[in-house]
Amino acid sequence: MSEFIPQSAGAIDFRIYSRTDVGKRRQRNEDSLGVIAGHGVFLVADGMGGVDGGDFSSQQVVKQMSESFKGFKPGHLRFEEVLDLAERSITKASSIINEEASLRGISGMGTTVVVVCFDMKSGDKACVMHVGDSRVYRYRNRTLEPLTTDHSLAAESGIKDTEMIPMFMAGVITRAVGVKEDILIDRGHVDVKSGDHYLLCSDGLYNMVSESQMADTLSLRTVDPAADLVNQANHAGGFDNITVIIIEVKARSHSDERLDETVS
Predict the structure, then answer these.
(1) How many whole angstroms separate alpha carbon 143 and alpha carbon 46?
(2) Is the torsion defined by CA of 184, 187, 115, 242 positive or negative?
(3) Residue 197 pLDDT > 80, yes or no?
(4) pLDDT at res. 153
(5) Which residues lie closer than 8 Å to 79 by C-beta, 6 or more apart?
(6) pTM as predicted
(7) Residue 250 backbone dihedrals phi, psi, to 5 degrees
(8) Which residues contact 22 (CB under 8 A, 6 or more apart)?
(9) 151 closest CA partner among 202, 179, 186, 126
(10) Is residue 176 classed as helix, strand or coil in its secondary structure?
(11) Whose CB among 54, 89, 125, 251 lies 3.0–4.6 Å from 194's, allowing a Cys bridge?
(12) pLDDT tens digit string along 29-67?
């Protein structure tokens, strides 16, 4: 199953695959994902904070992002307006999470977030926003390329091989939504081509599944590559929650045919 989204007011179409899973070792799923396909906005958040603090944090980012776009008809917003709405949503969620943490007396309550916003009118560019260590990859010409750099102790120390990360660095992030009142959101612009696959994921995927395995899975063009990747992460141990969104970009179709099966 998949969801094919033709955009009558846009230049590109999407085929979207998404999965979120608790994994094999955790009692609750603190990851959340958001698909706002009409505006070309996709996000993954990985919460932290104990009890239900992580749940609240990741869900709050998705909630604020979704509510920000509710009053706008797809195709009516300029790309710059989409980016401003997305960034303001993250900032608002951060303030709400920070206030909630103070009320609960919880230290370290927050969430990572990674967002991809496509320019629906031109169809040839996108913006990646992120805070923390959730990631975006682009698969093009049989090559998987990371589009984000983790905000983590390991990344800032220059360690790329996860097997070489000292225990005291493992999983320690240096930036998160909600932990502080102010927040710094990284932005990066990328070009977009028909046939590209954009993979958004939490660390529960890439800590269990190598980038070469991800590329191999995307190259196979199976019925549900998101489910395949989640299964691979669980097979490797499933030490954390696992969340994946895969967006396949297609040149605008002029067919009236619409497939409404959803992978989620």
Answers:
(1) 26
(2) negative
(3) yes
(4) 81
(5) 117, 119, 120, 121, 122, 125, 127
(6) 0.90
(7) -125, 145
(8) 28, 29, 241
(9) 186
(10) coil
(11) 251
(12) 999 999 999 999 999 999 998 777 999 999 999 999 999
DSSP H or E segment with residue 198: strand 197-201
Lowest-pLDDT choice from 23-27, 149-153, 195-199: 149-153
Q: What are phi and psi of 177, to 5 degrees?
A: -75, 125
In sequence order, which residues have a C-beta less than 8 Å from that of residue 232 and are 6 or more positions away? Answer: 208, 209, 213, 217
Q: Which CATH superfamily is domain 3-250 in?
A: PPM-type phosphatase domain (3.60.40.10)
User: By three-state DSSP, how is residue 91 classified?
Assistant: helix
Give ∠ CA 251-14-92 in degrees, rounded to 5. 125
Query: CA separation (Å) from 21 to 56, 76, 110, 180?
Result: 17, 34, 19, 28
The rounded distance, in Å, linking the Cα atoms of 144 and 166 is 26
Rounded distance, CA 119 to CA 62, Å? 20
230-257: pLDDT as tens digits: 999 999 999 999 999 999 999 876 544 4
Contact present, 39 and 71 (Cβ < 8 Å):
no
Q: Would you list the domain boundaries of the chain? A: 3-250
Phi/psi at 40 (nearest 5 deg)?
Answer: 70, 30
User: In sequence order, which residues have a C-beta less than 8 Å from that of residue 257 and are 6 or more positions away?
Assistant: none
* Residue bearing tokens 């706008």: 72
Query: Is the pLDDT confidence value at 136 over 80?
Result: yes
